[in-house]
Specification:
- With 479 residues, the chain is α/β, with parallel strands linked by helices.
- It has 2 domains: 11-82 and 125-195 and 312-424 and 445-464, 3-Layer(bba) Sandwich (FAD/NAD(P)-binding domain); 196-311, D-Amino Acid Oxidase, Chain A, domain 2.
- It contains 12 helices and 19 strands.
- The strands form 4 sheets. Strands 6-5-14-15-16-13-18-17 form an 8-stranded mixed sheet, with helices on both faces. The protein has a 5-stranded parallel sheet with strand order 8-2-1-12-19. It has a 3-stranded antiparallel sheet with strand order 3-7-4.
- Helix 1 runs parallel beside helix 3 (126-134), helix 2 packs parallel to helix 8 (347-366) and helix 8 (347-366) runs antiparallel to helix 9 (378-421).
- The structure holds flavin-adenine dinucleotide.
- Flavin-adenine dinucleotide is lined by residues 16-22, 40-43, 49-53, 126, 147-148, 178-180, 184, 204, 334-336, 342, 345, 347-348, 351.
Amino acid sequence: MSQEAQPSRPFTVAVAGAGIAGLALAIALKDLPGVRVDLYERAMQLREIGASIALGPNGMRSLERLGVHNALVDTADDPEQGLSFRNASGFPMVYRHYKTGEVVSTDRSQADRGIERRHWTARYYRAHLQEALAAHVDPQQIHLNKAFAGVAWDGAANHLVITFADGTTATADLLVGADGLHSRVRTFFEPSSRPVWTGALAFRSVFPRSHVAHINDLPHEATHVWGPDRTLFFSPLGRDLYTVVGQLQFDPDAPTQATVTEEGVQLQDTVSAWAAQGNVKTLRRLYATWGPLVQRLVAAVPHTQLYPNSSSHALPTWVLSSATVPAGRVTLVGDAAHAHGGAFATGGSLALDDAWSLGASLREVLVPVLPQNKAGPSTTADRRLLLALQIYEATRKAHTDRLLQVVHAANAARVARLRASQTHTAVPETDEQLRERIRTREDPTWLHEHDVTAVFANVVRERQGRAPTEVNLDVQSKL
Ligand SMILES: Cc1cc2nc3c(=O)[nH]c(=O)nc-3n(C[C@H](O)[C@H](O)[C@H](O)COP(=O)(O)OP(=O)(O)OC[C@H]3O[C@@H](n4cnc5c(N)ncnc54)[C@H](O)[C@@H]3O)c2cc1C
């Protein structure tokens, strides 16, 4: 970009990963004059694996702002084709007691807080959300079977040279790592940020709702059941699907505790094999002492997959650089930027907010000085690109750093409780203490109702001395 005499060429953004964040970023940058976006995805195809994913009001608003209206339709709007399920009560989540099944607590009512119904927390089968986003991206922009392996700066040509695992290369002005929790882009620049297992293991199942249709007293709402040492989540999803997720805690430093049952779930295997096939008999045994409703539910689960949970520390900066790659050319979005491990079911919403913010930052400060729009020295564009990444980081990072702090503290507390319960002198948690733990859990409102547009507008005011002019902050409109 900094060679004044070069003919105009598009400003090229290479995105590693075509998951929720990568696709949303491509949509945020769609139709921008002078900007070309290529998505490089490791998978051979956008696969139907994964289970349920929730979006809170912040994620729903970002979806709407990006123009992904097809993903806002839920099962109440269209019982068969609605993509997601929302609790009719307006409570994003209902918490029940593991033995009695009674409601002990709820998250705060969205109706009472004046949130419009179309922005209420919605639960999707992840593949449906990915499909809804992909419908807005030109398939020619998505290059499959391209796993990011490394990046270098070509100073003579003024661009990045990205290398893929198959030995091929691509060039770009900006590289965005949207390659998920185990991001290679992140660890390429910050090797110490490799995620570590938190000790939590989830049994995730998604199946046709007909499997549970016979359970007459099954609450028709997203429900989290808490017991002394494990939890069970269940909910309808869009398109007549249903999900059940069991989660239990191990000591991450004592893998000899790995064998959960005589059916033999070997934790060592499951830690390395994400989405490995689980055993429904194991799932049933894990909940065999719980109340009758839970037992009927797990008896109806036809299959399950195992997802070990991992997380990493907060990064010092999202404006990445190395001895050979200058600052202002590489950044991260989604789980790649904040490997929090899915806690609070907020990963999808954060990814959408990240993508919107990065798109808005580029639109606000970079695009107006690209040669295709206004003639101007291209060193200005270099400076503006760095400024755009700094505005993006200032909009997002403090929020996700706070999340990482909360998540690491919660993980440590769970492991400490487990270790305490395993000592000879352990005093078991009383029922009243369990209920109190449910009632005093972290209130997730600050996450699910975070207003990314307000933070972005403040950051632009601070850095530019004016309100955003290029970006429409209205939820009704496309970016
Ligand atoms: C297959 C799958 C299933 C999931 N299932 C669930 C679930 O059931 N529940 C839940 O809450 N969350 C799930 N997640 C995580 C959830 O999607 C994210 O937390 C959230 O949506 C943030 O999205 P993301 O785009 O940052 O990351 P992801 O959705 O993880 O997307 C990352 C993308 O990058 C690709 N990728 C990885 N490495 C490379 C590389 N080296 N080069 C190029 N591309 C690469 C991946 O294949 C993927 O498509 C799943 C993720 C994946 C990939």
